Write the structure tokens for this entry.
Amino acid sequence: MLAAAQAVAAVVVLVRLARGRRRLPPLAAPEPDTSPDTRARGGSAAWTGHGGTRGGGSPEISVVIPARDEERRLGPCLRAVLADPAVTEVIVVDDESSDGTARIAAARGATVVRGRPLPDGWVGKQWALHQGLREARGEIVVTLDADTRPRPGLFGALDAALGDHDLVSAGPRFVCDGLAEQALHASFLATLVYRFGPIGPPAPPPPHRVVANGQCLAFRREAMRRADGFARVRGHMTDDVALARTLAADGWRVGFLDAGGLLEVDMHESAAEVWREWGRSLPLRDVTRPAWQAADLAVVWLAAALPALRLAAGRPTRLDLTLLAVRVLLTTALRRSYARPGAGVLLSFLLDPATAVRLTQATLRPVRTWRSRAYSLGRPAFADAVTRGARPAPPDRNAPR
């Protein structure tokens, strides 16, 4: 019985991995406009100050950064965003921080929005983004977490990607410096691939299987305002996937694209923090129905954890060895997801049993605290079942760009 179940899990994993062979092209910085008229203006998109108009006919881009007690991490993010000529407005929503977040944002030159008290039923990040969206003036809005490190060309690439999508999220390269931190992080990352396949499948998945990365999202301002997206997922701890699945169910074209060398994220400072914080959100418990949660956990246990355990016990089967070979090949591919890949990525398969334990634990006993706030939001509201009034129409595909 166990062998049959493991064989089914192996087939599921192989099918999901095979999708990556025809994955969508990664986000890439657009080629610079070198026409004489552009050279005379001094570039394709010259900075003219907050709210100004840029040359080249490109849409104005507002960047919204929700920040709660981000004094230590906000500076590098703002420095990179403010230096990009594609950005016309930078808004930092100070979500009732107790440190110098607002002071640093203002000193760097960002527009600081003082977040209002958190209403009942809202999770803090959605509330901050909801307020930031109300203040944004650009046709395109990009939301970034404070721990992101954008590189030149990211915002132009996101703008270009919105020609084919209504909501775009970017997969970054991760900064993980310690051996244990990188190994655990890569093991967690592998579970996402086992459950959902590589970034950018050739055909969009059904809305209830869409995934997204809330560290970097891009969309058209007016379309998101009409959809009232952040309010509709106000109570979700897994806010990014809830938003993507809700909008996909409305008919939005949602793209999760590889940002390649255009975005880095320094999420955690230690392996313990990876275990505690990322392990808390990865099960996607509040946006996934119980049957899918059980199926996803079964795939992780049977296709990743069990082969590693049997290898450690010196009793691997042929199927175990096949799955371990697949996992090693995946490890090679995962190296591209790290800014400085090291031995931790290569050794990550050894931690797959521990990762399976953590995912199971977080599924059965979800944590409802984040950034010194405790949430009591009641029964999970699954994103594929969100219905708040009439379903908004999908964005106008022919809206002026």
Notes: Residues 1-20+281-364 form one domain. The first strand starts at residue 61 and ends at 67.
